[in-house]
Specification:
Blueprint lengths: L6 E5 L2 E5 L2 H7 L4 E4 L3 H4 L6 H8 L3 E3 L3 H11 L8 H8 L3 H4 L4 E5 L2 H13 L9 E3 L11 H10 L3 E4 L6 H11 L5 E4 L3 H6 L7 H5 L3 H8 L1 H10 L2 H9 L9
Parallel strand pairs: 2-4, 3-4, 3-8, 5-6, 5-7, 7-8
Antiparallel strand pairs: 1-2
């Protein structure tokens, strides 16, 4: 069983936090970078250096991937519990400092996503001033560079930054911010978690998330988009069998 502060497991060279959402939120209060790696992105850990660097330099990684958790428990005869990004976000949004207007800067993927997410937050009693909403540009697959975002954060000085971008990109943006800001806020790479609550993507009930069925809801809602993505994630099985706790070695 996890301790009161939570534990860690090193899986594929990444130190994953093993504990409850409340414990994870508490540990992030001092600032740092939190990542929520999903299987479709984790499968590229061996080949994408910038993504690998972001995970290795995060202050906390939570075990969001049900596939990774199930395979790991099978291989290692372990019993770690999955902590989803959705569960983490639900707990995070209960915190008074996160609910405080002007204390969180939201990085949104598109104008439509921003509209839906902000409307849902308003329904929850969370007001987000316009200055604290940033629409992300199309970031390069190579190097992240966004001085406009840095300037916005330095000007507004939020305690929290929540990124709602795709996996493989948001982690690199988070590391860019961690390395280039003059102070260290709490940087949460929550990805699509808020979209499951706001209706920007299919809504995922709490029971479905707890029973590792979020991927099925997404696949049924948009099969052409998500079925190939999750099918390709099967490559993660090979990495887990070959490397276990070791960091995958990039192919020569």
């Amino acid at each position: 069983m996890p301790s009161a502060e939570g534990e860690e497991r090193t899986i594929l060279g990444v130190h994953f936090f093993i504990g409850t959402a409340a414990q994870a939120v508490e540990r992030m209060k001092g600032g740092g970078l939190l990542v929520v790696p999903a299987a479709p992105a984790l499968k590229d850990l061996e080949t994408k250096a910038s993504y690998r660097e972001a995970l290795l330099n995060a202050d906390m990684a939570i075990a969001d991937s049900a596939y990774m958790v199930m395979v790991w428990n099978w291989l290692e005869h372990d019993s770690i519990r999955r902590l989803s990004g959705l569960e983490y976000l639900r707990e995070l949004l209960k915190q008074p400092d996160v609910r405080q207007s002007g204390n969180v800067l939201w990085i949104m993927a598109s104008p439509l996503s921003a509209e839906r997410n902000l409307a849902w937050l308003a329904e929850q009693g969370i007001s987000v001033p316009e200055e604290y909403v940033y629409l992300a540009p199309l970031y390069s697959e190579q190097e992240i560079y966004d001085t406009e975002l840095l300037d916005r954060i330095e000007r507004t000085r939020p305690q929290h930054i929540l990124l709602t971008l795709g996996g493989g990109t948001q982690e690199r943006v988070g590391l860019y911010l961690k390395r280039n800001l003059s102070y260290l806020p709490s940087i949460h790479c929550i990805g699509a978690a808020i979209a499951f609550l706001s209706g920007d993507q299919v809504r995922i009930p709490i029971w479905a998330d707890r029973n590792y069925l979020g991927w099925l809801y997404r696949s049924i809602s948009e099969p052409r988009r998500y079925m190939p993505r999750y099918w390709n994630a099967r490559k993660l099985l090979y990495l887990l069998i070959r490397y276990r706790e070791r960091l995958p070695v990039p192919p020569v």
